[in-house]
Write a structure and sequence with these properties.
With 192 residues, the chain is an alpha+beta fold. The protein has a domain of 131 residues. Helices cover 26% and strands 30% of the residues. It has 5 helices and 9 strands, in the order ααββββαβαββαββ. The chain has a 4-stranded mixed sheet. A 3-stranded antiparallel sheet has the order 2-1-5. Strands 8-9 form a two-stranded antiparallel sheet. A hairpin with a 5-residue loop joins β1 and β2. α1 runs antiparallel to α2 and α4 crosses α5. The protein is globular and about 65 Å long. It starts with 40 loop residues before the first helix and ends in a 5-residue tail after the last strand.
């Protein structure tokens, strides 16, 4: 056991705290019980229409569909420290961290990736691990990470970029809803 003072601070490194582990903790239930990673056909259809029609109504309809669905954010392992080279000259990962994926444009703007289903995520990168999330939480995370856009289904079948005022409203916790055919509004959660 490490030497710890009476305040739980490690004596050799006062910046490190040592605390008892709560072995009774449990994982929160999934907000998407029964999710098998399949994409919603309705969401995919809305993305395809937005791609084909390129109208504001088709775009907003696709965003509204995404607001009712779950997305998958890819998380990949990145080596933080390499081990010794093996006989074949290949270095092994000594330490690795999991990281969300961001794309950077030539002018330095960043977009966070998301996918509607495991098939589109694996078409992009088969080794990425999916993390389920709602669009509003994804937009908030993207803004926190410095991204100016969310890029959905980058590898197809139909990609959609969410940015600007739409992303800002989503990041504030609002969800876009179609109130009538071709008419949209923001659903805002009541304060708790």
């Amino acid at each position: 056991m490490a030497a710890v003072d009476d305040r739980g601070k490690h004596r050799a490194d006062p910046g490190t705290s040592v605390r008892d582990v709560d072995h009774e903790r449990t994982l929160a239930p999934s907000p998407f019980p029964g999710d098998d990673g399949s994409a919603s056909a309705d969401t995919r259809d809305a993305l395809a229409r937005a791609s084909q029609q390129a109208t504001p109504t088709a775009y907003l309809s696709a965003v509204a569909a995404l607001c009712t669905d779950r997305l998958l954010v890819p998380v990949v392992a990145t080596a933080t420290r390499l081990g010794e080279a093996t006989g074949g000259g290949v270095a092994s990962d000594k330490e690795a961290e999991m990281a969300v994926v961001m794309l950077r444009t030539a002018d330095g703007r960043q977009a966070m990736l998301a996918f509607t289903g495991l098939d589109s995520l694996r078409a992009w990168q088969s080794q990425a691990r999916p993390v389920p999330i709602t669009l509003d939480r994804l937009a908030a995370t993207a803004q926190t990470e410095g991204a100016t856009a969310v890029l959905v289904d980058f590898a197809g079948p139909a990609a959609l970029v969410i940015d600007g005022e739409v992303m800002t409203s989503l990041a504030a916790g609002h969800r876009l809803v179609e109130t009538a055919d071709g008419e949209f509004g923001w659903a805002i959660s009541a304060p708790e």
